[in-house]
């Protein structure tokens, strides 16, 4: 894999990304500063590896994180095992306060659809809940977790087929808007170039806490 590191973002590229997202060109420039710091934290190749993503955005070193892994997979929509700047910006755009609700709904749905079947299944929800509890050093009795999942599926699975499809998820979110609370990161509307700390963990902490918070269901 060749080096994609470019220290200065061309104005044409800033403009192109600005037309595709809720970010203006100045905010694109600020995100590029952040991207450069993250993508060079281990290997300066202009790409964010999974390890750089985990350490930079989630402060995870050796411990496995299902949530961080799922979000990395969704950011890496080109499926080449790394995140380039376009993927970084377009994915963060979903969390912008002015991003369309439909994009937030889709992202949250795909987060739970671990097996990528087009449906959310009970085993997937349990897997994610257990992972989040483990990361938070919390423990719930298995029967309590099962009861929560059963109640959730009773409310959401209107077709009664034991799984949640996209339309059922959309309907559930419409009636429970707080479910998308953590899909909006206010910092992304105010980020400015020149304000990034030398330590990307320090600067990103303000909005990556949203990723660390369990997505409610």
From TrEMBL:
GO function terms (MF aspect): calcium ion binding; kinase binding
Q: Where located?
A: Membrane
Keyword Kinase among UniProt keywords: no
Q: Does the keyword Calcium apply?
A: yes
Write down the PROSITE patterns for this protein, in alphabetical order: EF_HAND_2
Q: Its Gene Ontology biological processes?
A: calcium-mediated signaling
State the superkingdom: Eukaryota
Q: Subunit structure, per the record? A: Homodimer. Interacts with CIPK.
- Family the entry assigns: Belongs to the calcineurin regulatory subunit family.
Functional summary from the UniProt entry:
Acts as a calcium sensor. CBL proteins interact with CIPK serine-threonine protein kinases. Binding of a CBL protein to the regulatory NAF domain of a CIPK protein lead to the activation of the kinase in a calcium-dependent manner.
Please report the name of this protein according to its UniProt entry.
Calcineurin B-like protein
Which species expresses this protein natively?
Erythroxylum novogranatense
Q: Cite the source lineage.
A: Eukaryota, Viridiplantae, Streptophyta, Embryophyta, Tracheophyta
């Amino acid at each position: 894999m060749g080096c994609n590191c470019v220290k200065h973002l061309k104005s044409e590229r800033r403009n192109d990304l600005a037309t595709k997202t809720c970010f203006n060109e100045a905010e694109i420039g600020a995100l590029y500063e952040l991207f450069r710091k993250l993508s060079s934290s281990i290997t300066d190749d202009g790409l964010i590896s999974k390890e750089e993503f985990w350490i930079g955005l989630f402060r995870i070193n050796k411990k496995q994180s299902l949530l961080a892994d799922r979000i990395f997979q969704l950011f890496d929509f080109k499926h080449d095992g790394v995140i380039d700047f376009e993927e970084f910006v377009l994915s963060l755009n979903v969390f912008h306060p002015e991003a369309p609700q439909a994009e937030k709904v889709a992202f949250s749905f795909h987060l739970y659809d671990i097996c990528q079947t087009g449906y959310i299944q009970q085993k997937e929800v349990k897997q994610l809940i257990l992972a989040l509890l483990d990361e938070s050093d919390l423990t719930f009795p298995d029967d309590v977790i099962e009861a929560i999942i059963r109640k959730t599926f009773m409310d959401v699975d209107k077709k009664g087929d034991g799984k949640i499809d996209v339309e059922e998820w959309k309907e559930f979110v419409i009636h429970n808007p707080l479910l998308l609370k953590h899909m909006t990161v206010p910092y992304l509307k105010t980020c400015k170039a020149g304000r990034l700390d030398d330590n990307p963990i320090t600067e990103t902490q303000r909005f990556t806490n949203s990723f660390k918070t369990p997505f409610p269901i």
